[in-house]
Write a structure and sequence with these properties.
By secondary structure, the chain is mainly β. It has one domain: Porin (Beta Barrel). Strands 1-2-3-4-5-7-8-9 form an 8-stranded antiparallel beta barrel. A hairpin with a 2-residue loop joins β5 and β6. The radius of gyration is 19 Å and the shape is elongated. The termini are far apart.
């Protein structure tokens, strides 16, 4: 456990350093820097060869973002988000209701390339994609049998995850900034299980609202 905490602290320090460098580079280059925030919810699940009948379950996301306006319709963005993902397995038989619900909490940093392709009145539309690095904060398994419930920690997950993030959105100009509406899909690129041969990956769809200054 101390080794895992130490590794998590190092990863958090690295992520924070990257964010500071990203913001500093934009300011020094005279590029327009637009901070903001986003929050929302959606659905998530796990998939892979070592999963069995996993279903979608509710998820949530909230965090901060910084966007750098580049040439023409191009922009680059980096975010720092708290994300809760997971999945649920259900079994109903002989009048019994059994559920296994996985709850994974991550500190996630997406690095996104954005393309603004159309505008109408106060609305501007864009698409984006890029990799996301996620730091495992906490993982739990909640088992429910009818009215009985027990939650245990999951200790066989890796400390980090790597995902491909893509989505589309629109900004609506509102003084002193812009309202943001987005739809986003994330797809795990590697297994998060600690066992070398195991295949267990995250995926999720979220709808976000926010504000950019």
């Amino acid at each position: 456990m101390p080794e895992m905490i130490s590794r998590a602290c190092k990863q958090l320090f690295l992520i924070t350093s990257i964010l500071i460098l990203f913001l500093s580079a934009g300011l020094q280059a005279g590029i327009r820097v637009s901070p903001g925030f986003k929050l929302g919810g959606g659905i998530s699940s796990i998939f892979g060869q070592d999963t069995y009948q996993q279903e979608w379950q509710p998820s949530l996301q909230a965090g901060l973002s910084v966007e750098l306006s580049l040439k023409g319709p191009l922009a680059a963005a980096v975010e720092l988000n708290f994300v809760r993902r997971g999945s649920v397995y259900r079994l109903e038989a002989d009048g019994l209701d059994y559920r296994e619900r996985y709850l994974f909490d991550y500190l996630e940093v997406p690095f996104l390339a954005k393309f603004y392709f159309a505008s109408a009145r106060k609305m501007t539309f864009y698409v984006y994609a890029g990799p996301s690095v996620a730091l495992n904060l906490k993982a739990r398994l909640r088992v429910t049998l009818d009215d009985l419930e027990e939650t245990v920690e999951v200790d066989n997950l890796q400390g980090t995850d790597l995902l491909l993030t893509g989505g589309a959105g629109t900004t609506i100009s509102l003084k002193p900034g812009s309202l943001i509406l987005e739809a986003r899909y994330c797809h795990g690129l590697k297994s998060v299980a600690t066992e070398p041969e195991a295949d267990l990956r995250n995926k999720g769809l979220v709808f976000l609202a926010g504000f950019r200054f």
